[in-house]
Amino acid sequence: MLALTKKTGYGLIAMAHLASLDGQKVSSAREIASTSGVPAGLLMNVMKELCAAGYVESVRGAHGGYRLARRPDEINLADLIGAVERPVRLVECVTDEAGERECTCELMARCPIADPVHRVHRKLNDFLKKVTLAEIVEPCLLEKFSSGQTAG
Amino acid sequence: MLALTKKTGYGLIAMAHLASLDGQKVSSAREIASTSGVPAGLLMNVMKELCAAGYVESVRGAHGGYRLARRPDEINLADLIGAVERPVRLVECVTDEAGERECTCELMARCPIADPVHRVHRKLNDFLKKVTLAEIVEPCLLEKFSSGQTAG
DNA sequence: TCAAACCGAACCATTTTGGTTCCATATAAT
DNA sequence: ATTATATGGAACCAAAATGGTTCGGTTTGA
Prior knowledge:
2 copies of one chain form a homodimer. By secondary structure, chain A is mainly α. The first copy, chain A, has one domain: Winged helix-like DNA-binding domain superfamily/Winged helix DNA-binding domain (Arc Repressor Mutant, subunit A), CATH 1.10.10. In chain A, 49% of the residues lie in helices and 5% in strands. A two-stranded antiparallel ribbon of chain A has the order 1-2. In chain A, strand 1 (56-59) and strand 2 form a beta hairpin. In chain A, helix 1 (6-19) crosses helix 3 (40-52), helix 1 packs across helix 6 and helix 2 packs across helix 3. The longest helix of chain A has 17 residues, at 114-130. The radius of gyration of chain A is 18 Å and the shape is elongated. The two termini of chain A are 34 Å apart. The relative contact order of chain A is 0.17. At the A-B interface, helix 1, helix 5 and helix 6 of A face helix 1, helix 5 and helix 6 of B. Chain A binds a DNA duplex through residues 1, 5-7, 28-30, 39, 41-42, 44-45, 47-48, 51-52, 58-66, 85-86.
């Protein structure tokens, strides 16, 4: 459908939330969920994936939670998508993000559009790599500095 | 999954095929299917949709088939996607291609990322609008003019 | 009249998504 | 120690989307 999944959307919302925290503070998945209105159980799963992918750090046990593991401008949409949903793949016959063909699509031999479409795929990926969490999160940060830390 | 559906891929292949025909010649869905190795029944459906959307013209009856209804440089990927699959929609809360919100997403009121994500959606759409059939089809056209009409 | 082609509409199996639930482990507070 | 709260890991399921088929109808050239 050429759409992000809800998991990615929820992940973005959660990362935006975490970006609005200061210092080493953590926020639990349940907390993020209730603040943002996202289903808690699903968000828990997403957070685990974000953690496994190294975008957030977890603190276990009571008063635990998550915090960002990288600066927002070091996190881009393409990688984030790869962490919580299947990787971007404009067409089936391109599996790695560089757009190289590795598959054994039977159409490939006579497919008249493989090369140009792979080129488009690479351009799409470049585009997504340029979209950073920093710019998605920007209004949240503004809010953070103007309204004095009401989140949480 | 942020991927085109196979229908869109098949549609592109078919349009590329049609672009390689000269003049007012038509090619039947079955013919395109057997040439390109795409499942015939499904391609028939896709062709109907492309026809309904005005990208190809149909000639009914024996010796009928399809031909392009527009110049390849007047057909862009964003519109084509809209014709054969559900429209591009980076997130749920944006339904029209301009990226304006029209939905009534309950998260909207407290969603911290709606505006930036909509901005990204618009940029994605602009990108897809710039990808024309002409550039996807280019190698086919080269083949057409160099090897003297072997296709079909 | 017949066969080839489009037209319209169901119909179905598989895959993906969205979401829940359960159990195990870690840890702060009592 | 016990308990409440958290993550970690994995299975599980329903709903939606996709990929593909099929059937009956209409048009039209031979």
